[in-house]
Amino acid sequence: MVAVDQLEDIAKQVRRDTLVMLNRAGSGHTGGSLSSVEILTALFFSKMRHKPLDPLWDQRDRFVLSKGHAAPAFYAVLARCGYFPLEDLVSLRKLGSHLQGHPDCKFTPGVEVSTGSLGQGLSMANGISLALKLDGKPSRVYVLLGDGEVQEGQIWEAAMSAAHYKLDNLCAILDHNHLQIDGTVEEVMNIEPLSDKWRAFGWKVFNINGHDYAQILTAFDKAERTKGQPSIIIAETIKGKGVSFFENKVEYHGVAPTDEELERALRELEFDSQRG
Amino acid sequence: MGVREAYGETLARLGEVYKDIVVLDADLSGSTKTCIFAKRFPERFFNMGISEQDLMGTAAGLAAAGKIPFVSTFAIFATGRAWEQIRQSIAYSSLNVKIVASHGGITVGDDGGSHQAIEDIALMRHLPNMVVIVPTDAIEMKSIIETIVEYNGPVYVRGSRIKFPIIFDDSYKFEIGKGHVLLKGSDVTIVATGYMVHSSLEAAQRLAQEGIYVEVISMPTIKPLDEVLLLKSAAKTNAVVTVEEHLVTGGLGSAVSEVLSENYPTTLKRIGIRDKFGISGKPKQLLSHFGLTPHNIVEAAKEVLGKKKKRVSLKVVATG
C-alpha cells in the first residue's frame, strides 16, 4: 500500500509527464487527462493487483479506459509503474510509436482492450467481468468513463447488462469534470440526475471528490465489499486539474499545451510540490 | 436441415469439447438456433436483450479475457446496428469473436426490406482482420463452425432463414479461403455463394442442354477470396458471372471484379441486387423480382459468352 503523500507526489509526476507528452505530440486531450490523474494513480499504485513486468499475469485486476482520450495520463501511469520505459512517453502519437493517440492493446503492455470510440468500454469491461466470474477468478475489473461519454446509448445498454448479470466484480468510475468539446455537459446534453439514473439501472453509487485520495480509496474498498450488483463511483473532478490556466476551460479539451504554456504549467506544478 | 439448425446443433456439440465457448444472442435465440446451446449450457449463454451494440462489446470483452464468443442475431442488426462496435471493439484488435448471423439476404421474405440484409457482406468485407464466410448448405455450415472455432480472429458467417438443398456429403471439409469447382466447364465461369450456388447449378444444367458448358464455382469464403481458383478458371473460360443474394456492390461480385481487373481482365456480369432495398414477399417471388433465378443466370451466361465471342472475332479482324 502506497501512502497518500506518496500518491500525491506520483500524481504530480504524472501531470508533468502528461503535459510534456502532449506538448511534444502537438495534439491530444489535456483537460480530460488531467482530471483523471488521481483516479488512475490510486488504481495503479494502490488499489489494483497487477504486475507491470508480467502484464498478462493471470490473477491481475483489469482496467479499461473507456474514455480513451485520456490516454496520455494513462500511459504516464503505466510507464511510472514500469510497464515500459519512461523515455517512450514522448513518442506519443508519433509514427512507429507503441503509444497510439488512443489506447491500443495490440501495441501497449498494460492496455487490456482498445478504446477511443466513446461508449464502448463499459460493454467490454462487462465481458471481461463475465469471463472472470465464469472462471471463478477473484480479479476485479475497473473501467473509467467520461461524463460526456454517458450520452452514448451503448453505455445504458451496458449499464442494464452489468446489473442484470450482477457483476459485483465490476467497478466503474465516472470522471465527472462537467465539460465536453462543445461546452458544458449540461448545455450540450444534460445527463443529470446522474446518480439517480445509475441507481435506477441497478447500480450501487458512490459520490466522491475525484481528486481526494482518501475518498477515492475508501470508495474502491466499499465497491469491493458491495455484493450482487455493480458499483459506480461518480467522481467530481476539475477538467485541466493542477494547472490553473487549464482548469475548467472548455477550450483545453482537445488542445495540447504550447511551449510557453508548458513552461508555465511545469513551473506551477514545481511550485506546488515545493510548497507541498 | 437448414444452415441455422446446422449451426445451432454444431455449436451445442462443440460446447462439450470447447469449454471456453460462450454464446451471446440478442433476443433471437429461437431464430438463430443458439437456443440449443443455451439449453445445454445455460451458464455459458448470455442473452443480452435487444441491444446489439452491447452484444458485440460484451463479446469483445469475453474474447479479451480468453473466451471464444459466438455471437448471433439477424444479419442486418449484427452488421448494421453494431457495425462500429464490430470495427472498434472487435476487428481493430483482431479479437477472437465469431459473429454467426442468420437471416441474410432477401429470402428473409415476408418481414420486408427492414429485416433483409443486402449489404452485410460489404460491411464486413471492408473491415481489416475480418474473415467473411457464406455457407452453401447445412453440411458446409457444420464444417465452417468446426473450422472457425479453431481459428483465432474475428469471423463473420452469414446464414439464411430458408432451408438450402444439400449438395455436399458428410466427408466434406471446409477450409477458410478455399473455393470449390462443383462443375467443370470451359465456356463460362459462374462464381456463386450461399443459396445462389444451387440456382447456379440449376442454370448450368439448362445451359448444358443448349450445348453451353459452364464451370460452377462455389465461393463460401468471400474474404480472403480464393484468387488462385478464380484466376485459373477465368483463364480457361474468359467469361465470368458472379451470383449473390446481396447488392452487386461490395460483396462477391465486387471481390471477383477487383481480382480479375487487377490480374486478368475478363468479360464479367454481376448478378445481385442493384441499388435497391428489399420488399415483402415470399422468398421465391423475391428472387424472381430481383432477378436472382436460374433463368437470370442462364441469360447472364449467354450474355458474357456473346461478348467474349465478339471480342475474339474483333481481335481476329484487328490482327487479320
List the helices and strands and how they pair.
The complex is a heterodimer of chains A (276) and B (320).
Chain A: H1 4-25, H2 31-34, H3 37-47, E1 62-65, H4 71-81, H5 121-134, E2 141-146, H6 153-164, E3 170-176, E4 179-180, E5 183-184, H7 185-189, H8 194-200, E6 204-209, H9 213-225, E7 231-236, H10 259-275
Parallel strand pairs in A: 1-2, 2-3, 3-7, 6-7
Antiparallel strand pairs in A: 4-5
Helix pairs in contact in A: 1-3, 1-4, 1-10, 3-4, 3-9, 5-6
Chain B: H1 3-17, E1 21-25, H2 29-32, H3 35-40, E2 45-47, H4 52-64, E3 68-72, H5 75-81, H6 83-90, E4 98-101, H7 120-125, E5 131-133, H8 138-148, E6 155-158, E7 180-183, E8 188-192, H9 196-209, E9 214-218, E10 221-223, H10 227-237, E11 239-247, H11 252-263, E12 267-273, H12 283-289, H13 294-319
Parallel strand pairs in B: 1-2, 1-3, 3-4, 4-6, 5-6, 8-9, 8-11, 11-12
Antiparallel strand pairs in B: 5-10, 7-9
Number of domains of chain B: 2
Number of strands of chain A: 7
What is the helix tally of chain B?
13
Rough outline of chain B = elongated
End-to-end gap of chain A: 21 Å
Distance between the termini of chain B: 57 Å
Count the beta strands of chain B.
12
Low-confidence stretches of chain A: none
Query: What quaternary form is this?
Result: heterodimer
Strand order of the largest sheet of chain B: 2-1-3-4-6-5-10
Which CATH class of the largest domain in chain B is shown? Answer: Alpha Beta
Radius of gyration of chain A: 17 Å
